[in-house]
Design goal:
238 residues, Undecaprenyl pyrophosphate synthetase, 7 helices, alpha/beta, single chain
């Protein structure tokens, strides 16, 4: 399907990349093999997203709750982030801006430096903005923003009566990114899992049984076609 055949397109699309462990289990492989395959899926999908003309794409890579997983699985995920960041940085030569959201304090110094370097190198890019949520939680995002607002108020820089939805939104990790228009979750589950709770307030939700490792352009275009056919009323009765 050609990009111009799907209208309107979402400006910002978000993904909950679920099902890597089940994909591996079905093949008699360790869960970590599924995560490695999932990283390949992400890189391939970025080409399709950019080709379709979508401006913002956010991926739920590692949640604040994922630290509860086995030490081996967490270690593999962190290693994958480090390895694949190099490929994503090279991808930036194609006018892609890369940024990260989530608390960085629990990440290794090496990974934190790579993330900061990638953001700095792509800061002036004007094409697709790719955001990876690592050690991210929607509630944590809102709590952090509330603390920032309280500190600004305490220091005399912000009057509580002047706090608006737009202003509060600029205190979130996604301060310079528009709200999500379409959120896609793979893997057959139908829940939000603490992802971008503020930012998906008026997003269209699309759930699929397809596991993340098997998700490709065909499934993406199905989601986009479904989105294009929805009537987004934002509370309006019409």
């Amino acid at each position: 399907m050609k990009p111009q055949e799907i209208t309107p397109l979402p400006t910002h699309i978000a993904f909950i990349m679920d099902g890597n462990g089940r994909w591996a289990k079905k093949r008699g492989l360790p869960r970590t093999a599924g995560h490695r395959e999932g990283a390949k899926t992400l890189k391939k999908l970025l080409r399709d997203i950019e080709d379709l003309g979508i401006k913002y794409a956010t991926f739920y890579a590692f949640s604040t709750e994922n630290w509860k997983r086995s030490e081996d699985e967490v270690s593999t995920l962190m290693k994958l982030f480090e390895e694949n960041l190099d490929d994503l940085v090279n991808y930036q030569s194609e006018n892609v801006r890369l940024r990260f959201i989530g608390g960085r304090e629990r990440l290794s110094e090496k990974l934190q430096k790579k993330m900061a370097d990638a953001e700095e190198k792509s800061r002036e890019k004007t094409g697709l903005t790719v955001t990876l949520a690592i050690n991210y939680g929607g509630r944590d995002d809102i709590v952090r923003a509330a603390k920032r607002a309280a500190e600004l108020s305490k220091d005399g820089f912000l009057d509580p009566s002047d706090i608006t939805e737009d202003g509060f939104g600029r205190l979130l990790y996604t301060e310079d990114i528009p709200d999500v228009d379409l959120m896609i979750r793979t893997g057959g589950e139908s829940r939000i899992s603490n992802f971008l709770l503020w930012q998906i307030s008026y997003a269209e939700l699309w759930f699929t049984d397809t596991l993340w490792c098997d998700f490709g352009r065909r499934e993406l275009e199905q989601a986009l076609s479904d989105f294009a056919g929805r009537n987004r009323r934002y509370g309006d009765a019409k």
